[in-house]
Amino acid sequence: MRELSVIGVRVELPTNQPIVLLREVDGDRYLPIWIGAVEATAIAYEQQGVKPARPLTHDLLRDLLQALSAPLQAVEIVELKDSIFYADLLIGESVRVSARPSDAIALALRVGAPVRCAERVLDEAGIIIPDEQEDEVEKFREFLEQVRPEDFAS
Fold first, then answer.
1. φ, ψ (nearest 5 deg) of residue 81
2. Which of 13, 77, 90, 151 has the CB geometry, 3.0–4.6 Å to 73, for a possible disulfide?
3. Which string of DSSP letters, residue by residue, matches 43-105?
4. Phi, psi of 27 (to 5 degrees)
5. Chain-wide mean pLDDT for the chain?
6. Residues of the chain under the 50 pLDDT cut
7. What digits encode the pLDDT tens for the residues 80-107?
8. pTM for this one?
9. From CA 6, how far away is CA 50, in angstroms rounded?
């Protein structure tokens, strides 16, 4: 497993499909995962420190795990099959629960749990951004500083 950092979310044009972009902590590969608008909003809210008046589903899951003394140890993106990513939540000492990567990432951000990815998934879906495209990554980071979670609403 390789640890990833969550770069952020953006809308891919021309389809207006949100993606979450992850990057290897000790490597050069990026992992883009297409996600739903609700999950994009949940990730963006957490990254921007937006606290809604009522808890979102991912906030509820965080609070539930805390109330049950069952900490989220990590999120692992474990498989890519037919262009669909699969993830597991590692809870407590030995519980593994299947989850969509977008939900798992939104939850991991809320509790500070690491996000990891199987090497074979990174080998298949990871991309390396050439040096000349680093400007695009910087533009993406600038975009993330300006985007509002509401921008991901359908």
1. -135, 125
2. 90
3. HHHHHHT---SS--HHHHHHHHHHHTT--EEEEEEEEEETTEEEEEEEETTTEEEEE-HHHHH
4. -165, -175
5. 87
6. none
7. 999 999 999 999 999 999 999 999 999 9
8. 0.81
9. 17
